[in-house]
Amino acid sequence: MESLIGLLVGFPLLGAAVLLCGGKRLDRTGHWLGVLLAGASFVVGAVLFSDMLGKNADERALHQHLFSWVPVESFQADVAFQLDQLAMTFVLLITGVGTLIHIYSVGYMEHDERRRRFFGYLNLFLAAMLLLVLADNYLLLYVGWEGVGLASYLLIGFWQHKPSAAVAAKKAFLVNRVGDAGLAIAIFLMFTTFGSFAFAPVLSNATEGGEGKLTAIGLVLLLAACGKSAQVPLQSWLGDAMEGPTPVSALIHAATMVTAGVYLITRSGAIFNAAPDAQTAVVVVGAVTLLFGAIVGCAKDDIKKALAGSTMSQIGYMVLAAGLGPIGYAFAIMHLVTHGFFKAGLFLGAGSVMHGMNDEVDMRKYGGLRKYMPVTFVTFGLGYLAIIGFPGLSGFFSKDQIIEAAFAKGGTQGWILGAVTLLGAAITAYYMTRVMLMTFFGDERWRRPGQESAEPHPHESPRSMTVPMIVLAFGSVFAGGLFKVGDSFVHWLEPVTQFEHGHSPLSASVVTGATVVTMLIGVGAAWLQYGRRPVPVTAPRGSLLTRAARRDLLQDDINDIALVKPGEYLTRGLVYVDNKVVDGVVNGTAATFGGLSGRTRRLQNGFVRSYAVSMFGGAAVLVAATLLMRAV
Amino acid sequence: MSLSSPASSLAGDALTLAATSTSGGEAVSFWVLGTIAVMGALGTVLLRKAVHSALCLAGTMVILALFYLANGAYFLGIVQIVVYTGAVMMLFLFVLMLVGVSAADSLKETLKGQRWLALGCGLGLGIMLIAGLGQASVSSFTGLAAANAEGNVPALAAQLFTKYVVAFEVVGALLTVAAVGATLLTHRERIEKSKSQREQAEERVKGGTQLPPLPAPGVYARHNAVDRPGLLPDGTPSDLTVSATLLSRGQVREVGPEALHRVAALEQRTADSHGQTEHGRMYGEPHEPDPDPDLDAARERDARKAREEEAPK
Amino acid sequence: MSPVNYVYLAALLFTIGAVGVLVRRNAIVVFMCVELMLNAANLTLVAFSRIHGNLDGQIMAFFVMVVAAAEVVVGLAIIVMVYRSRHSASVDDASLMKL
Asked: What CATH number does the domain containing C74 carry?
């Protein structure tokens, strides 16, 4: 059984290698290879899962040691895999959703001539993400971490001919780099504190490190998570990442890569548990991002950017839950899985809408599309209901648990966090309803009377695209209930996350009621704004907050002022120093020597009598020296 | 002459083989001759015309020879006069004549600050040398009485051919090399064939210059003096007959008919006062030869002998 | 009066000759000043031979004289040669070896 773990990574890696190196002859059939290998990986994952289910809770972890990578005396780095319950969850999510999106991409990228490469990059992403979750030490995790960053860059900038795409890819990579630096520093600190960076020695001995060091490790791990999961302050890349093709947004920037940060925090739970200050920082980051993403999502007219804001906000929820400690880890992961289903479904639906509307992304140019795209409407609608937390669907269960755990934190923190999560729920309902209303209801704003030939012709997408959407809709509906029944999900993860039952000042039913009420408030407000009145085709000026939210709450401007401009000044200063000081010294030395030699050169003027004077002077000096010596 | 009395005292001292003390006469001679020597050296350095410098140097060298004699270096003193003053200075004067007589040094100094530097260095060096010498205490001196016991030349020879024989040989070789070298240096290899007479004549025809060769020196000369030009048949002086150097210096004397007459009249008066001539005549005019008593007596004897030899026959 | 006075005189003559080398421009006059310096050295040697009472100084002076003679021969030959090619006997005119 253990030997199968390597196949999980090996299949997509093989696919990536073959597709990327295979050349033009694979252009016609290569994508099916990609789909096949992704599916194969899922099958292996399912086999391993069923095997794991048959074992006792304590014996479920599997290990596979592939080879010893850096066998230096005290620095032992191995390529070894660890498949425990947490990793298993992620494996199923990644391979399952990944395979569905592979199938979806067959239809979506049908007319793209670089499709083979696209599938190669997708497979590469799968391999790297699986490596990330299966690694049994932080260094191998870092390899996977970097790999997904690379895949993200390649995929965001897939349409290379578009300058905006290239810039967005570069921005994503650079911002991720800041987080990556955090992870690297964490590994360094772990090595100096614990003498190793494998999960077992570090996490089981976490309490023995000094609290200062543990807080430091926790904070840099949080920085890494912020980079990968687009949390404040490293959130600026996610909106621009929507330049990539929609399957990419669905897979990477909704379901999987952006969840890597949550995985990291959950996996390193022992460290955070021993460093309460770091945990507080995590919670704060989660809360801030939660609201940030929600506000941004309210003002965007681009459907994908609105969903991106939503992703940012939902991951804020997950991070907040993870920051609550043992009372929240399981719920963070639960929300992560349900979010994977419904967000991927929402993105695939958005892609389907764009596909039918000639790749138009501005929702102000949609309207009344439910008549023309019924399947898309239904799957999108189910995803919508899940995300707003409609009772009975998956999102309701997972979000509700998080809100409850937030209140259970205790003290003022608990009240604040609870309030924030409720507020976030309200805003989530608002902006998602806004998206639904603007896209599928209302006037058909895309009609051009008198120019019928220039109108888009909205139509349903082909089967290859709708089937994955339907499957994901199933998951959006039923996954939450499945996890909640008998607290199965919590018990499943218990050996890894050490679940503790939090004690909330409010009872569960009160929290649930509050959640439903806030959801209805949000839906109602959106209906008032967008349902009753016709939606203007050109965006109205809006309030100050709206305008700021359209500009991503000035995130780029802040980054510019805080980082880019000082960096530019520093560079300019350094260039100045290089030119004036360093070059000045060098050129000055040369000039000094040149000048000196120019002066000295005049000693040789060709006149014998001048030379005779020098000789004579020298002789006089010699005589003087001799006399002095004798006198002394 | 002023030199003679110090020389005689010097000779007296020489005879006493330059003993371990100096006499009063030597002191006087030192101070007097020393002053003159310094003046001669200053003249060498400061006089404008090179020939004057050479003559001053010759004088200094002679005085130095006298000093050598006073110090018991008799051989060296004589050699100084013979070699240095006699040969080397004459050589200098020869070359001066060849080369640098007309070029008088201008007083303007071309190099900036050279004079001041030279004076400064000179003063500095001089002061230091004299100060250093002052520090040396030479209260008593050995004198050359013992060294010159058998005479200066034998003593020198004894040293020269035993202790310093290698240096002696080498120096001899050096002299040879110097002589050969000087010859080689100044040798001018004839690069082109010298022109034959025919070629020279053809050149003269082509150039339109004077066709026949010039007359030999003295054909048109009217006087022995170098600075008097010869007269062409029509009485005009010819510049070709005088040295170009004299012409460039403007040291040629004029030679018009009136000048010639004046010179002739002067010579006539001179000759008349000496009773050498019967009547005034110009030099060079054809005339009867002067009566020579010896010649007349000789002719008389020849005539008598001839008559005596003819008579018996 | 000690023979050291001759050495003083020689030092003075030497200095005058050295200044002459530096100041005069005519090559032959420079040469003559060099000869003056050599003669001053000779006078020193002779005076010291008298002071020390052996003939080594005189022999050295003798050799100096010989070498000076050889030097004069070659030097004047060179001056004549230079004059032939440049028609100038000034040491300042031979100033091509400069930067």
From this structure: 1.10.287.3510
